[in-house]
C-alpha cells in the first residue's frame, strides 16, 4: 500500500507539474479565468464519460457538501491565485502555496473527527517545506521574490481554502473516488462558469490548434484524470500526505521547464527533490510505526 501511495502521489506531481507548459500555451488564446472554467468543464465531462463507461454510479446524495468543496477547491482559488500572481513573483507564490500542508495539519482536528497533530505529519510537513525553500532559494536570495502584502494574503487565503476542501473530502461517505472527483469538478465547473461570465465575459477570438489542444489536455488530464488520482490518494493515504503534492509539483515543473528549454538543471533543484522525497518517506514510515506502536 505504501508503494501505491508513493506512485499515486508522484503521478499527480508529474501531471500537475506538466500543466505549467500547457497553461502557458493556452494563455496565448484564452484568458486565465476562462481557462480555469473550461478546464473544469472538460475535466468533469471526462470523468462523467469514464463513470458511464465503467458503469459506476453515485448515490445522488451529499450534493451540498460537493458544492462547498467545489467552491473552496476551485472557484475561490481560481480567482484569488491569478489575481495574487499579478503582483507576486512565481517563486514567492509557490512558497506561499507550499504552506497548504501546514494548514491541513493545523485544521485537521477541527474538520476531521478523531484527527490529531502527530509527530509523523509534523516532521514530514516541515521537511517538505524546507525542500520547497531549497528549490526557490536562488530566486529568493537575489531579491526576486518581493512581497506584496495584499497579493500574499490572496495566495494564503487560496491555500487555506484548498486545505479546508481537502479535509472536507473526508466527510464524503460511501462514494467511489471517481464519483467524488466527478461531482466536485461538476459543481466547481458550474461555479467557475458563472464567475467567468460575471468577471470576464467571453469574447470570441480565433484560437490556435496548439492552444486548443493545450486546453483539452489541461481539462482531460490535469483536471479529470488527476482529480481521480487525487481523491484516491486522500482515501488511501490521508489529507496531509496528499497535500504534499504542493511540494512535488513545483519541483516537477522546474524539471520539465528545464527539459523543454534545454537548460541545465541546477544543483539546488536536485537537492530539493531529494528533501521532498525524504519528507514523503518520513510521513509514511513514521505513520506506519505510530499505528503499530
Short description:
It is built from 12 helices and no strands. The protein is mainly alpha-helical and 293 residues long.
Topology:
Elements: H1 2-26, H2 32-54, H3 63-85, H4 90-97, H5 100-111, H6 119-141, H7 149-168, H8 177-199, H9 209-237, H10 239-243, H11 245-261, H12 267-292
Helix pairs in contact: 1-9, 1-11, 2-3, 2-8, 2-9, 3-7, 3-8, 4-6, 4-7, 5-7, 6-12, 8-9, 11-12
Describe this structure in words.
- Helices cover 80% and strands 0% of the residues.
- It is mainly α and 293 residues long.
- The protein has one domain.
- It is globular, with a radius of gyration of 19 Å.
- It starts with a helix and ends with a helix.
The biggest beta sheet reads: none
* Secondary-structure element order, N to C: HHHHHHHHHHHH
Q: What is the CA-based Rg, rounded?
A: 19 Å
Helix fraction? over 70%
For the terminal residues, how far apart are their CA atoms?
19 Å
Mean pLDDT: 84
Strand content: under 5%
Number of domains: 1
The global form is globular
Structural class designation: mainly alpha
- Poorly predicted regions: none
Descriptive tags:
mainly alpha; globular
